[in-house]
Specification:
2 domains; single chain; binds zinc ion; 10 strands; 31% strand; Nucleoside Triphosphate Pyrophosphohydrolase; 8-stranded mixed sheet; elongated
């Protein structure tokens, strides 16, 4: 998304710094300054044993691709609240998040090219009932060692690689996810199972 051409408040044409076209633009009529920022989003890396819950997208962009549950933050919303809200909306599950966030990834969204700043938390299920939302075709648990080929958004494959590397290098550590005892034999690849709805 390009920088504003007109003031969104009073519709006056905004001055442009040709050397820094994405710099903040101050409106000479109403005095408002308009910043051109990446859009904040948050997501939940919901783990169960060594599997991660992904959502098959039913809408563009990346229709038919597997995505991490998440979405854009609302005005004034903390990323942790946004990650929990989106997880519940998209999967029907109530999740508890690890703190601090696991990763912050930059990307862009769809054809508009809006830059996005994506905050991800590792999460575990503490309630709810799994069911895909209207804009999801399916939910499925994938072993971190056997992820699907078609993963939505450019940054998500790298994100999931980092998650798999973390689980190998720091097994069962962490603040909330690592409270269980390890289960023998659960770290190897195994077929993913469909979520019962
Ligand atoms: Zn204005």
């Amino acid at each position: 998304m390009p920088a504003f051409t007109y003031c969104p408040y009073c519709a006056t044409r905004l001055p442009v710094d040709l050397l820094r076209p994405d710099a903040p633009r101050a409106c000479v009529a109403c005095g408002a300054t308009h910043y051109h920022n990446s859009k904040p989003a948050a997501g939940a890396l919901i783990l169960r044993d060594d599997r991660v819950l992904l959502v098959e997208r039913a809408v563009e962009p990346f229709k038919g691709y597997w995505d991490v549950p998440g979405g854009f933050l609302e005005l004034g919303e903390h990323p942790a609240d946004g990650a929990r809200r989106e997880a519940l909306e998209e999967t029907g599950l109530i999740v508890e998040l690890e703190d601090p966030p696991f990763a912050i990834m930059m990307d862009h969204y769809g054809d508009s090219g809006d830059f996005t700043l994506n905050v991800y938390y590792v999460a575990r299920v503490v309630g709810g009932e799994a069911r895909p939302s209207d804009d999801a075709a399916a939910l499925d648990w994938f072993p971190l060692t056997a992820l699907p080929e078609r993963i939505a958004f450019d940054h998500c494959a790298e994100l999931l690689r980092r998650l798999a590397a973390r689980k190998i290098s720091r097994p069962r550590s962490g603040t909330t996810v690592g409270t269980r005892s390890p289960v023998p034999g659960e770290s190897g690849p195994s077929p993913s199972s469909h979520v019962e709805s």
